[in-house]
């Protein structure tokens, strides 16, 4: 059972992980969940709070977990990762541009860059320049959208369907309203198109997951999406000692983790990149003890996991959960890319063989 924190009382957000005598010194920060920040920035981030979000008017006291209470944590059986449909809806909500592909008059495949917004069911709304009107004679089309994350990781979503030109004025005004909320400017109603969703493909690490139209439309975008990137930046810049301890305790690696980076976070857990003493990079997934839906839930889960990891690391308690496995195949990829480029073909073969031995 997770520890409950007291009700928030102050007017700024502290750092995610707790400040206690046995943790590294934490740095407090203020965060607006609807602002995005570059994952490449190495400077300390400062964000102003918005009065529009009642959640962010408050702060949370540092969680104080006693040894006896944290030792009673039980692992709730939950999903480890969002479904491909949920991932696709999240990508479409966070992105605003993609590549529209179809076939021209000559039967040749063509692609153009477009901006888009989505309605409540994730249906793409596009405003296509008049100069590309000849490009839209074929109804069968696809829209490829990608979301770049930390660690040079990119996840993609491809929506397949037909382009439609709405004529009803009421419908056009509704679509224009959605467009204006997304881009803060009106669209030319004569250039607005919608794309029916007949099928969706979620792509990551060269793996494809097919999603049906009904699965896509009924899926809910991740509730942490608007401030996930800011959490990633805060942990990687200011909380590395505690975060590396979490990776050490919650992952079954078989080696000493020399470096860890938070890549992305969602309602069910977070993705990390870890480095071995041989400078090999792996990807792993660490689930939360239970699902979270807001900033308060993220903070509470991180605090308890950090406290419990410290107690296990010091030998005060035994871990009472099943550790996550890292992705051995990431080693093979890194061996072929990094070793071959930096140290020569021989090292790449050696590391690749070591990867194959690791997976049996």
Automatic annotation (TrEMBL):
Record-annotated DUF2470 domain positions: 229-302
InterPro entries membership: DUF2470, Haem_oxidase_HugZ-like_sf, Split_barrel_FMN-bd
GO cellular component, as recorded: chloroplast
PANTHER family: CREG1 PROTEIN (PTHR13343), GLUTAMYL-TRNA REDUCTASE-BINDING PROTEIN, CHLOROPLASTIC (PTHR13343:SF22)
Protein name as it appears in the record: Glutamyl-trna reductase-binding protein
């Amino acid at each position: 059972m997770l520890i409950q924190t007291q009700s928030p009382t102050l007017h700024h957000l502290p750092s995610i992980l707790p400040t206690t005598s046995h943790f590294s010194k934490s740095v407090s920060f203020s965060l607006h969940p609807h602002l995005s920040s570059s994952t490449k920035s190495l400077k300390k981030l400062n964000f102003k709070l918005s009065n529009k979000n009642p959640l962010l008017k408050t702060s949370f006291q540092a969680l104080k977990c006693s040894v006896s209470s944290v030792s009673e944590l039980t692992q709730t059986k939950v999903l480890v990762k969002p479904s491909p449909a949920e991932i696709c809806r999240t990508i479409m909500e966070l992105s605003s541009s993609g590549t529209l592909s179809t076939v021209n008059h000559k039967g040749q495949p063509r692609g153009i860059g477009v901006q888009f917004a989505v309605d409540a069911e994730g249906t793409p709304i596009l405003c296509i320049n008049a100069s590309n009107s000849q490009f839209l004679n074929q109804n069968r089309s696809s829209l490829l959208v990608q979301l770049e994350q930390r660690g040079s990781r990119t996840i993609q979503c491809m929506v397949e369907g037909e382009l439609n030109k709405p004529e009803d004025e009421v419908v056009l005004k509704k679509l224009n309203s959605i467009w204006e909320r997304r881009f803060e400017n009106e669209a030319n109603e004569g250039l607005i198109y919608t794309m029916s969703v007949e099928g969706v493909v979620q792509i990551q690490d060269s793996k494809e997951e097919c999603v049906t139209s009904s699965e896509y439309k009924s899926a809910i975008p991740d509730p942490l999406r608007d401030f996930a990137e800011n959490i990633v930046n805060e942990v990687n810049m200011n909380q590395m000692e505690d975060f590396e301890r979490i990776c050490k305790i919650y992952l079954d690696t078989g080696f000493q983790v020399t470096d860890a980076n938070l890549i992305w976070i969602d309602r069910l857990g977070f993705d990390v990149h870890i480095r071995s003493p041989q400078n090999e990079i792996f990807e792993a997934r660490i689930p939360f003890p239970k699902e979270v839906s807001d900033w308060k839930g993220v903070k509470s889960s991180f605090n308890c996991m950090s406290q419990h990891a410290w107690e296990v690391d010091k030998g005060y308690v035994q871990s009472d959960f099943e550790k996550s496995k890292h992705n051995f195949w990431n080693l093979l990829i890194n061996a072929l890319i990094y070793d071959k480029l930096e140290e020569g073909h021989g090292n790449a073969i050696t590391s690749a063989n070591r990867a194959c031995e690791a997976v049996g």
